[in-house]
Amino acid sequence: MTVKRKKLILIGNGMAGVRAIEHLLKLAPEAYEITIVGTEPYPNYNRIMLSSVLAGGASLDEIIINDLEWYSSFNITLYTGHTVTSIDTAARTVNTDKGVTAAYDELILATGSNPFMLPIPGTEKEGVIAFRDIKDTQIMQDVSQKYSKALVIGGGLLGLEAARGLLHLGMDVSVVHIHEYIMERQLDEAASRMLRGELEAQGMKFLLKKQSEAILGKKRVKGLLFADGEMAEADLIVMAVGIKPNVMLARSCGIEVNRGIVVNDYMETSLPGIYAVGECAEHRGIAYGLVAPLYEQGAVLAKRLAGAPTEGYAGSVTSTKLKVSGVDVFSAGQYIEQPGTKALRFQDETEGIYKKLVIQEDKLIGAVLFGDTNDGAQLFSMIKKGENIKGREKELLLGIPADALASPKGNRLEGMPDDEIICGCNGVTKGTIAEAITAGGCTSVGQIKACTKASASCGGCKPLVEGLLQLYAGEAAVTVKEGICGCTMLGRDEIVAEIKRMKLTTVKEVMHVLSWSNEEGCPKCRPSLNYYLGMLWPEEYVDENESRYTNERYHANIQKDGTYSVVPRIYGGVTSPAELIKIAEVAVKYDVPLVKFTGGQRLDLLGVKKEDLPKMWEELDMPSGHAYGKTLRTVKTCVGSTFCRFGTQDALGMGIRLEKAFERLNAPGKVKLAVSGCPRNCAEATIKDFGVVAIDGGWELHVGGNGGVHVRATDLLCVVKTDDEVLEWASAFLQYYREQAGWNERTAQWIERVGLDSIKQALESPEERAALVERIQKTLSLTTDPWKQIVNTPELRKNFEAISLPETV
What we know:
Blueprint: E1 6-11, H1 15-27, E2 32-38, H2 50-55, H3 60-63, H4 68-73, E3 77-80, E4 84-88, E5 93-96, E6 101-103, E7 106-109, E8 113-115, E9 128-130, H5 134-146, E10 149-153, H6 157-168, E11 172-177, H7 189-201, E12 205-208, E13 212-216, E14 223-226, E15 231-233, E16 236-239, E17 243-245, H8 248-252, E18 261-263, E19 274-276, E20 281-283, H9 291-306, E21 319-324, E22 327-333, E23 342-348, E24 353-360, E25 363-370, H10 376-385, H11 393-397, E26 421-423, E27 428-429, H12 430-438, H13 445-452, H14 462-473, H15 492-502, H16 507-513, H17 525-536, H18 550-554, E28 557-558, E29 564-566, H19 577-589, E30 594-597, E31 603-608, H20 613-620, E32 632-637, H21 651-662, E33 671-676, E34 690-695, E35 698-703, E36 715-720, H22 723-740, H23 747-754, H24 756-763, H25 766-781, H26 786-791, H27 794-797
Parallel strand pairs: 1-2, 1-7, 2-3, 7-19, 9-16, 10-11, 10-16, 11-12, 18-20, 32-33, 33-34
Antiparallel strand pairs: 4-5, 5-6, 8-17, 13-14, 14-15, 21-22, 22-25, 23-24, 24-25, 26-27, 28-29, 29-31, 30-31, 34-35, 35-36
Helix pairs in contact: 1-9, 12-14, 21-22, 22-25
Protein name: Nitrite reductase large subunit NirB
Keywords: 2Fe-2S, 4Fe-4S, FAD, Flavoprotein, Heme, Iron, Iron-sulfur, Metal-binding, Nitrate assimilation, Oxidoreductase
Organism: Paenibacillus rhizoplanae
């Protein structure tokens, strides 16, 4: 006899509620007909990763936790873009704003929280937003294309991540905070000041001890007035001052509400058959905002709904392990000293490391780590256990030795409690991973990821997952060799070696001879093979346009509305009145909606229709700036000794020479150069792929910098005396990078992988440098300007006549 399924409705398609459903499907897959209603028009996504989307480090697709196919595979009815407006608790139905009425036997409220907006005049103005969902992220991205100055109110984690994203989008960003130091809820003052120093080095500004009084402007925001009478200009104000549980729906149907929806240890509300979980819930007077407690709540709720035994949710001791704009920080427990406590500190500002332990009655009750957070999980375990650490205080402060918490086998992971969170992004515990290995039969990291979602988001926990795999699977653990993509098990070096050995000459030939599992390839391998073939055989290989991304096929950056941007090359950022007039006239003629100076000292003409591109290129009669490909982008300069009283060398001349030398250079990743005319480094040469800094009597050559999502300062390659030597070393370095790096690997990642010493060793021989210079010059001699080639070739020009958007590879 078929048992009739009960009807379960989840209101809220966020991380906490859907995690409860995932647990329920494992415990009782046939017990419920499940309906999920979500206000946003997307499937379940990782809200923690929004800052990565804002900064350009991830796409929306990459932060989706459960795609539409997942809902379908479990026969879940999903209503996206619907907001539940009322609950009829007598009839047991819910109603949405789009006319849907659905019946329930059991109901879960996972309505999350709303951003807190300061109650000050002007919050209704255009350009004042929160940072809470994908829509907010898209608004910030749009605003950054038109405006320059942003203020972020709130110096907590969310505010700093919003500020970092806006900084990456090219805006001038200041963080406004009412306290005297940032992230005061997660860090003590010493760690906070170190973090502030790191963020200021990235370009972030801070206005501390500032109380916001009013938002200025008529229709659109123009600035922010403070209580002390000072004012800061702004085209955009992002409020990140906190969240408040979304209880409106619960309150409207008579459910008990305090700060959040009041629940007991089984996540039950005051009305039978209705539960609450996540940021909207208040348990024992606490509404949690961190993902780990919310996932713990979801696990308890799932067991309750499945009829499985559970002890109930007893609350959470929280810890925070974060990466704030590339800087690792950790805090747990009571990390601010109180009467009756004592603190131990270690601070190394040279290495950027700070550690503090707070101890009471010989027990660790709190910890703060900055820069080096490797011991965070072990310290947190001690805090939760209330373990006596007498006699081991300094040992713990300076780094837990391998056997401090180890089992007789000496494995630190073995001594870790089962409820320890391994994957903070997805709230996966050690016990869950252990069960997936011992009971679920997982024998590889990939299988564990698919089963538990551990390491499926940022990937920072992968070493711990690998360690647990070895601990529990032993010899059965499978180290799955990862190729450049899912089409092959071959890595970059193996592919390049085989292309050389067998003299393979086309993408199709490589995939056929090397036994690709997908004979057509994929968007990851086809562009990489196209690059490797062109790099190895510059004279013989004919570039496969169909193996390039849309931007590179059309030699312009496609924008989200389907238009393109045109960035002509302006050598070293130096132009002339005549050139400016020509650009302006073309912009007027083709009704370009936005002209913007880029961070690389060029002009970007945005909003161009595809069919207008060749005509604009023709009338501009300027080389392509290659702002769209994995090529040399720009060579940024300061005025150097030409005008500046501090300049020691001709930065303008050197920048123009370098840009003209490498302007059409293809590379594994985009390449940015800069030349600063003195050590004051106004051109920011020390965050470029190749940076040149003038000193008395010569030049410092810096490599491997990155000013993007993951900021990295350069390493000093060498010091040279003459301009010719700068060009020689630049040529040799760039060619060695072209030949050794993997596709889509920037110089920063490459140098961290292979080490600076190996690069110095490869370039130290004048004979080897000369050979590299010869090879790069041969490659460059075979390149042509793509804009001129298209303008002068009718067959190529026809590709721009279509109005529909091209498909991407």
